[in-house]
Amino acid sequence: MYRARLVQAGGFILSQKIKSLLFAGITVFIVFSLIKFPDDALEASIRGLNMWWEVVFPSLLPFFIMAELLLAFGVVKFLGVLFEPIMRPLFKIPGVGSFGLIMGMASGYPTGAKIAARLREEKQISKIEAERLVSFTNNSSPLFIFGAVSIGFFGDAKLGILLAVCHYAGNIIVGICMRFYGRKEEKSIIAGQSPPSKNKVSIVRAFKEMHRTRMNDKRPFGEVVGDAVLNSIKTLVMVGGFIILFSVLIKLIFMTGVSPVISIFFEQLLKLFALPAELALPFFSGLFEITIGAKLISDLTIDTLLAEAIIVSFILGFNGFSIQAQVASILSKTDIRFSPYFFSRILHGIVGSVLTVILFKPLYLNKQAFELDDIPVSHEAKQNLWAVALNTLEQIGPVITIVFLGIAAMILYKRTIKIR
């Protein structure tokens, strides 16, 4: 018994030493790459910064602030009572999880993780329920799928319908699959506790829960709004840091010649599924950052659009390591484990790709066949609502970012003065 424990302890120490060497080696590699390619690193850093302050910050900030306010004012509790009969049987999570699902689909990642973490911090859901929730509420936003990928990269608005249906339907399927996650652990926790309430849907009861939640929050209105702004901006600053970091990292991987070597493995993997080997390098890039991967895929000149759509669907579902790092940072402040989310991202990528194969003909080819007008693609893209929204956001986004960063600085300054 003693020897077994000793061997186990020795194995743990060895694994920690290997991790230390691995982390140190990767960091040293990045530092030397930065020294060798300073101009390329600066260009990639500026690209990531532009993406953050033009699109990411202004598009996510309203959703983050509204999420904080809706939680504080009890509206999430209200929705929880109404959606309990749907969320509990389908996903085995409380009705409040519907708020994370709706907001995640509307605004994109990492909103789902942010809401799941907040619900867990407020003890509205259990640890297992939070891990289930975060596994299927981090989606690409409609603005990104239609505006950036379908129209911006491929110049084809109809492709967005296929990608969106496969992406969101795949996420719902993942959520249903994840309802079976953690059943044994959950049973041991809730043993002896009363089962979840099975009361019928009641507007009156939902309103009472909302009112009770608001009254339990003793903060004045001004402080609630200030906290919502500050918490949202803090999260988005962290998101911006990861976007810039991974933008530089991907550029350095290309500049050092590592990516072509690694892509050889992906070429063999794609051949197993009868997909063109030319997609290997874009696929590898998309595993790190969705935008770069989708752009590289759209730049290829291969005959079959189906193969490109399959890979795009996979990387949309996988989220990319950049998004996953953002989610991991948000979850690190809670007891929610990252591993269920990572597993669900692989599952979502696979399910989304399979749905793309199944739905490519009815949602794309048939739609193309019945298209009667001969409007040029470029003209269609200019007139598309999503393209207009994305272009407008890129123009006014920096102003919104600067204004709200200034507001956050003023709030922090006033609170610092009060403390003194």
From TrEMBL:
- Keywords tagged on the record: Membrane, Transmembrane, Transmembrane helix
Lineage, top-rank taxon, reads Bacteria
Keyword Disulfide bond carried by entry: no
| Positions of transmembrane segments | 21-37, 57-83, 133-155, 161-181, 242-266, 305-325, 346-365, 385-413
UniProt xrefs under InterPro entries: Gate_dom (IPR011642), Spore_IM_YlbJ (IPR014226)
Query: What Pfam families does its record include?
Result: Gate
Residues of the Nucleoside transporter/FeoB GTPase Gate domain: 55-152, 237-331
* Full protein name: Sporulation integral membrane protein YlbJ
